[in-house]
Amino acid sequence: MGQSRRVRVRRVYDPVEEADGSRVLVDRIWPRGLRKDAAALDEWCKDVAPSTDLRKWYGHDPALFEEFGRRYRDELRDAAHAQAVRHLREVARHGPLTLLTATKDCDISAAAVLRAELAQG
Asked: What is the pTM of this model?
C-alpha cells in the first residue's frame, strides 16, 4: 500500500475511527473547546505547522490556497519543519497515520498540503 493511502486528514473533533492508526495533531494552536483527554492523540506535532505569519495571512481563504500551499511547502524545507516532516514520514512507514486539524475544511488546510508532501517522500 502506498504511503499516500496510509496518510489521512481528518478534523480533530471527529470521532476516533479504527482506521486512524497514529493520530497526530498538526496545528500550532490547541483546538478551541477540546479537552486534552478527549482528543485521543498519539502526539501533537506543532513543529510541522505553518508559521503564525503564514497562517494569519492565509486565513483559510479558498482563493489563497494555491499560494498558501506554495509558501507552506517552502517552510517545510527549513530545518525545524524538515525534521518534523521526517518524523511524520517515519510514523507513516510503520502504519496508518491520521493528520488531525481543527480547520473546518480539511481540503484547503495545511494538513492537506502536508499530506501531499508526505506522499512525495
From this structure: 0.92
Phi-psi label, residue 95: left if phi above 0, alpha if psi -120 to 50, beta otherwise:
left
State pLDDT tens for residues 67-110. 999 999 999 999 989 999 999 999 999 999 999 999 999 999 99
Helices and strands (H, E) in the chain, number of each type: 5, 4
| Those residues with Cβ within 8 angstroms of residue 53's Cβ, 6 or more apart along the chain or in another chain | none
3-state secondary structure of 34: coil
Tens digits of residue pLDDT in 21-72: 999 999 999 999 999 888 899 999 999 999 999 999 999 999 999 999 999 9
Helix axes 79-93 and 110-119, enclosed angle (nearest 10): 70
41 in Cβ contact with 23 (< 8 Å): yes
* Helix segments in 14-96, DSSP class H: 52-58, 65-75, 79-93
